[in-house]
Amino acid sequence: MSELFKQGETIVAIATAIVPQQGSIGIVRLSGGSAVAIAKTLFHAPGRQKWESHRILYGCIRHPQTQAVIDEALLLLMMAPRSYTREDVVEFHCHGGIIPVQLVLQLCIAAGARLAQPGEFTLRAFLNGRLDLTQAESIAELVGARSPAAARAAVAGLQGKLAHPIRSLRGRCIDILAEIEARIDFEEDLPPLDEGLIKSQLEEIKAEISAILATADQGELLRSGLKVAIVGRPNVGKSSLLNAWSQCDRAIVTDLPGTTRDVVESQLVVKGIPVQVLDTAGIRHTADRVETIGIERSLQAAKAADLVLLTIDASSGWTDEDQEIYQQVQDRPLLLVLNKSDLVPTLPPVPSLGGSPLPVVTTAATLNQGIEDLENAILAAVHSGDLQAANLELAINQRQAAQLIRAKTSIELVLGTIADANPLDFWTIDLRSAISSLGEITGVEVTESILDRIFSRFCIGK
Questions:
Q1: Cα 112 from Cα 198, distance rounded (Å)
Q2: CB neighbour class for 7 (10 Å; exposed up to 12, middle 13-18, buried from 19)
Q3: What is the predicted pLDDT for the residue at 252?
Q4: What's the pLDDT at 282?
């Protein structure tokens, strides 16, 4: 991908989501040395409007050969280096829909632009020094954010709240390396190396890396969310629980066993965390082939879930059927839900399962009771009540976590080398590895294959 950038081509792409009859504005974006020239062949601005940077022009887009009007539009000019890519950037703001933007896109390509690859605009911003790699990744995370908390974490990354500490850590490692190498090259001219100070500095760096690494799981929750499966025998109120939780009639509710034949899905946000809730078919022995398929899918959903809500009927208590279902899902994280609590004066006893009692939540789904307790119990079950993702300002992704783990391991190896009283040359080997790993996070040291892997996940136009 970066090889294409080196050719200096002008790229073009549709920069907005295109949905029939849904979008009022559609944007086609050009970036590169020929962007303005291409725009002038297509866009006709009446009157004496000036083609100057950061101006919006009004006019129409015409076919360069037939002069047929393609669309009435606005043109936004952003000249280098004051643009997203630090190249000349032109945006056609057309009427929304499929046809206008597609026609404009084809005209730009016919005029000499090349269709951009996924993430190529942001790649150019990175290669031109406008963004570091953590900021570029934050842009993709902001576009794909599934909750306000995820969006806030992405904006924090875009503002450099991850890049700044990483640069600081890398700079301190470089300073330590310089001190060590100076003693190697000029040992007779310099005072002895303060080994205790070096160890103290490395321990501080290691502790700060560990603190940043601690955000990895929370960051993954923000980005990917939780998959929660509601399972149980028929008529325990699974669908009612989903409807009460989602505050809409997502699932059909009747008194007839086997009403839910397939997995019903709902997307929620719980304390800033995206949650995919799966209402599954009631699990029981049945000769109905269609219902059997639904039950098989229910068990598959439970096995793929991050958390299983094993739901029982409080008015019936724990039954042999509940025990059988438990045996099939006991390998997953479980939360026991006593539903229909409004139908009994006292709650039934719950057996100790797996040698220890399961977390229990009491609900009355038809009365919309116990939902907040359920949400709190879910978060507590995931992270033992220590989840703070809703207020998280820093959340690293898997790639960044992998490099931080490498850096931390390298620092530990340096400390081991010092403890073993090995020569100074040995200290520098793993210290250089730590510096390299930290540099890969921000993109100071990065290979083309890594760039290809990161930016290929972006949408075209971003």
A1: 57
A2: exposed
A3: 40
A4: 59
CA distance 19 to 98: 7
User: Above 70 in pLDDT, residue 38?
Assistant: yes
Residue 286 backbone dihedrals phi, psi, to 5 degrees? -150, 150
Q: How many helices (H) and strands (E) does the chain have?
A: 16, 13
Question: Where do we find the tokens 């850096």?
Answer: 407
List alpha helices for 384-423, DSSP H: 398-419
What local confidence, expressed as pLDDT, does residue 281 receive? 63
pLDDT tens-digit readout, 86-124: 999 999 999 888 888 999 999 999 999 999 999 999 999
- Tell me the two tokens of residue 392: 């998280």
- How far is residue 291's CA from residue 23's CA, in Å, rounded to a whole number? 41
Q: What is the pLDDT of residues 406-435, one digit of tens each?
A: 999 999 999 999 999 888 888 899 999 999
Residue 351 CB partners (closer than 8 Å, separation 6+): 318, 323
What is the distance between the alpha carbons of residues 100 and 26, in angstroms, rounded to a whole number? 8
Distance between CA atoms of residues 322 and 336, nearest Å? 11
Look at the alpha carbons of 456, 458, 460, 462 in this order and tell me if their dihedral is positive or negative: negative
3-state secondary structure of 269: strand
Q: Is-contact 457 137, C-beta < 8 A? A: no
H or E element that contains 210: helix 195-213
pTM recorded for the entire structure: 0.71
* pLDDT band for position 52 (cuts 50, 70, 90): very high
Under 8 Å between Cβ of 120 and 461: no
Beta bridge partners of 73: 59
Q: Convert the pLDDT of each residue in 190-232 to its tens digit.
A: 777 888 899 999 999 999 999 898 877 777 776 767 788 888 8
Tokens of 10: 């002008």
In whole angstroms, what is the distance from residue 366 CA to residue 401 CA? 43
Tokens of 120: 């190529």
Q: What angle do CA 56, 61, 63 make, to 5 degrees?
A: 155
The span from the CA of 194 to the CA of 202, in Å, is 13
Cα separation, 446 vs 442, in Å, equals: 9
For residue 75, the SS3 value is strand
For every residue of 304-353, DSSP letters joined together read: H-SEEEEEEETTT-S-HHHHHHHHHHTTS-EEEEEE-GGG-SSPPP---B
116: nearest Cα among 420, 376, 459, 436: 459
Give residue for tokens 């049945």.
286
SS3 content of the chain, % helix, strand, coil (to 5): 45, 15, 35
